[in-house]
Model the fold of this input.
Amino acid sequence: MADSSGRLWRRMWRRPPAVVGAAVVLLFVGLALGAPWIARSDPQRSDYSRIRKPPSSANLFGTDDLGRDIFSRVVWGTRISMQAGVFSIVLAIAVGVPAGLLSGSRSGITDQLIMRLTDAWLAFPFLILAIGLVTIMGASLTNATVAIGLAATPTYIRLTRGLVLSTREDDYVQAARALGAGGLRTILCPVLPNIVSALLVQATVSIPAAIIAEAILSFLGLGVQPPTPSWGTMLNTAQQFLETAPWMAWWPGLAIFALTLSFNLLGDGLRDLLDPKDY
Done:
């Protein structure tokens, strides 16, 4: 076990982009968890004597059109983006994986019904479906998270079904059946543990899309509502002051770029790291 763990760490360190991505993700997780201690200024408190002030020692990222500290708003906005990105994908996994397992383990009408519904689901572009759902449910962070999760669900249904179909005829699955394991036990014991790594990689590369979707929904006024700090709402406000106060757009834009890029780098590294052909 120790040798295997050591080999895993050595393989990880041979992929600097993945290490950098993991470090940046952990940094943003730390910002989200430590926001009350890191951002001492109230992100919603206005100071009309400091409207649109450039970055300085008093305000590291400058201030916005209402004199609010942009650094505090970016830090607190990290919580919103991480919540929307992670929780929406958790919802997609919670719905999509069981449906994919059922579809892949059953043939006939059950499989056909699930896949035709999934095909119809996939006929709607991811972002358009999320916008439609949140428009129906109402604008809020919770509804935006649910809408993004439901829009991402078909991907996990198809992925899980494909993984089940590709593994259920493997020798270890046949051995479990020969020992008397039933259909449900076969899926939950030999099959599911062997497809978790692929699902983990997919989740890692899906989170950036969910973060961007939340920013777009908030930018359009369908996600987080002002004055709650969100990177999307900050960009919406900043578009009016791109010439006079460009720093209002710099920092939330850079935060979105850094977090989504780091998740993508981490996902690529995990995909290479968990590839059984490399062992």
In short: DSSP finds eleven helices and no strands in the chain. The radius of gyration is 22 Å. The chain has a mean pLDDT of 86.
